[in-house]
Amino acid sequence: MKLTMERLTKQFKNKIAVDRVSMELEEGIYGFLGANGAGKTTLMQMLCQIITPTSGEVKLDGRSNIEMGEAFRDLLGYLPQEFGYSPGFTAKDFMLYIAAVKGLRPSYAKKRTKELLELTNLSEDADRKIRTFSGGMKQRLGIAQALLNDPRILVLDEPTAGLDPKERAYFRNMISGLSKDKIVILSTHIVSDVEYIADRILLMKKGRFIMNGTVSELTETIDGEVWECEAEEKELENMDRSICVVNSHRQGKDLRLRVVSNTKPMQSAVKAEPTLEDLYLKAFYEEMDERGRW
Ligand SMILES: Nc1ncnc2c1ncn2[C@@H]1O[C@H](COP(=O)(O)OP(=O)(O)OP(=O)(O)O)[C@@H](O)[C@H]1O
């Protein structure tokens, strides 16, 4: 199975949210990683036919998704960023309702609902109202509904937003487990959500993919550029603004710094093993303010 984006573009008035994106995806987990506003949601919405591209095309095995129509949508499972859960529904009724909207046969819907509530560890909560669910439970239910039609293409827009570390870990394992024979696209701005489970990372910035590769292919690009050093506060203040400080940790009166720089930032600096987080922070460094906030 080959999902292709061909010069996919979306323009809102004078804002180009997605800019001539071309990419070919086969079975596997893809992490769309980018800062807020990079264009991830817009791109996913075009892939799922929620919005129409200004130009460009999406194809599946060479056929336009528009031409395929219903046949394409039948292969899709989508979890939007803000899912409209009906708080008065129980988890089970909600699943059956979505199954009906998707046009699934009632007997199949019932069987799938049971299986998926089990998979997402919600069986015991099947008859509880969604309004009583934690953020993590709602996200698990969101995944369950996206899987109702056994999709070959699963698109998850910031599925881990608001989850605590334990729920994030559970979630990652669940995605890994269900990704066989599927194209799974997962958008996030949290590096650790995709670092260990994505087969490929697609780094998105200003509407374009600026990098694409496995974690090790991407981190190799900054091999030899990551440094650790101790510095006084003054030295940090005077440091060239173009040097990307990815972490600064106070130790007594000094600071322990981790920086990305293609030249040695100070005499005492020693090289460190690059991580995906280093690469991400370097890519989006200019979008941070002088206090290191986004
Ligand atoms: N309906 C719209 N009208 C105008 N501009 C829009 C619209 N939707 C998105 N944009 C703009 O397009 C750009 C990309 O937005 P998008 O939501 O796709 O980014 P994102 O990477 O998903 O970020 P986030 O994680 O914050 O949702 C942003 O500058 C956003 O303000």
Automatic annotation (TrEMBL):
Keyword ATP-binding: yes
Alphabetically ordered keywords of this record: ATP-binding, Nucleotide-binding, Transport
Cross-referenced InterPro entries: AAA+_ATPase (IPR003593), ABC_transporter-like_ATP-bd (IPR003439), ABC_transporter-like_CS (IPR017871), P-loop_NTPase (IPR027417)
GO molecular function per UniProt: ATP binding
The ABC transporter domain, residue ranges: 3-231
SUPFAM superfamilies attached to this UniProt entry: P-loop containing nucleoside triphosphate hydrolases
Record keyword Cell membrane present: no
Family the entry assigns: Belongs to the ABC transporter superfamily.
Designated name of the protein: ABC transporter ATP-binding protein
